[in-house]
Here is the input.
Amino acid sequence: MGNLCSVEGAIDHWLYIKTGDRKSGCNNVTIKVILYDVKGGKSPEIALSCNFNNDFERGQTDTFQCPPLGNMGDMNVIEFWLSDHDTVSDWFLESVMVNDARKEKCFYFPVHRWIRPEKHYMITSGDTSLPQNDPYPEQRSSELKEKRALYQYSQQAPDLPVQVGSALLTRFCAKGAWSSFIPHAEVPQPLWFLTHGSNHLDRYQDQE
Here is the structure.
């Protein structure tokens, strides 16, 4: 289930925003969207928010009526960002779909990303391309750099297998795998041991 938010004037386009089934902190904020078409046209900045409703909740699809977009053609790029980012944490956006009611066409933009409050995102229809053909190489490079920094592994003692790094574990807990039943600041003891290794075995045993 989700919300339906209306605007004044003739309606020719609808936006469907699907929040992923992950724990996040983006409820009741305003998301700004700009649509781009294959002819090079660009929509005005569209603010997506419903007063007195809980927007963008976990697993929810929210429906928004766009203001009249004139003679815009088929949509091929969407730009979006969180406008009041000082009050929210990351948000897991699964997808955006644009429905052109005049032509009875839908344009699907798979996102499947944690949306950071301070960033603008450019997503193409289908979001599929070879690296050398990516129309937004700086965005791709930034996301790859973030993943390399996140997925770091270490070996805490000789002859032990590599272990997950503390940065990944911290994000893992904060993003919902454990945070549904423990505070973000706490790390379950088995997971804590994965990042500290046998050098801290005595401390781990003392905690039991």
